[in-house]
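Example 3.2
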Amino acid sequence: MFSDGGEMITWRGLGFLGFMIPLSLFGLSSVLFGYQSMPAMRFEMIVAAILVWVLGRRVNRVALEDGGEQPHQEFGFPMQWCALLVLAGFALTF
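Structure, written as tokens:
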């Protein structure tokens, strides 16, 4: 069905942290403050976006300095771009 594998959820290197960090922080805030606490969820999303951005930039910096491709990717994009998806989710909470 998918001959090139381009339509699947994929990651390379530490790219899986782009969705695991927000997911784990969401779980933690749900346990600590309840799953209906919107202020806690919004704060968690901001913290997750910052963590993903900083971590993604840090782990991909070495490869960029060597002139290579960014090794830590999610869905074919650099890991730090997943922070933009988290911020888009944050905007949808208003």
